[in-house]
From TrEMBL:
Keywords: Cell membrane, Glycoprotein, Membrane, Signal, Transmembrane, Transmembrane helix, Transport. Residues 1-23 form the signal peptide. This is MFS-type efflux pump MMF1. SUPFAM superfamilies: MFS general substrate transporter. Belongs to the major facilitator superfamily. The lineage of its organism: Eukaryota, Fungi, Dikarya, Basidiomycota, Ustilaginomycotina. The keyword Transmembrane applies. One of its GO terms (cellular component) is plasma membrane.
Amino acid sequence: MVAGVAGFFLFLLIEFIPNPLSTQPVLPFKLFSNRTACSAFLMTFLHGIATYGAIYALPIYFQSIKDQKPLKSAVSTFPATAPTAPFAIVAGITMAITGKYKDLTFIGWSFTAGGFGWMTRFQTGTSEWELIVAQIVAGVEVGILFAITLPPIQASLPVEELETATATYAFCRSFGAIWGIAITTSLLTASVSDKLGSLPEAAQPGLTGPTVLGYVENIKNLPEPIREQVRQMYADGLQKGFYAFMPVVV
């Protein structure tokens, strides 16, 4: 982890500071010298962290806590994905008509805070309607913010920089996705691993720290009361992930 963080900052130094090693930088500093573009790049990165972290966490929740098979868990995330395209279209049309994006940005991040705040309540006994409504709220923000983050970047930079700016936009979202998935998996694995010491019976069927992610489909086969205790471990671990995303989206 230390090497990764050090490498990241070294990459930024090489990219942003003129030097013989980077005559044609992938991320030119001039793209980030514009305040509007820089803010949009940052929003894209943060949006990638939260969105992809949640997308990765939700199927794990449905499989480990609700005993759903992989296909059913994908169907259960439909409330989060269905609103994305319609609200992206609405946001795009609204921005095209009004020429404004700041109000839409505020609305999008408000839905983000509301949706992720609700997801922090996901536990073993969470009702079906709560799961659906929270995902719908989060899905609305995904659509809005997907649609409105790129146009401000392209509008605020010179025409000759648009190709590089668009590629940088895609990089920021993908880079955020890496962080989001890493946060989800790290917190879940660490949380469950820490609690397995108090439940040695769970290790006998094969649940250990390294197998936390791959074991979700087998939880339903555990005997009681171990099964409920393991479910609670997974619920607590996933909940920590949603809490970790709150500073990102607020």
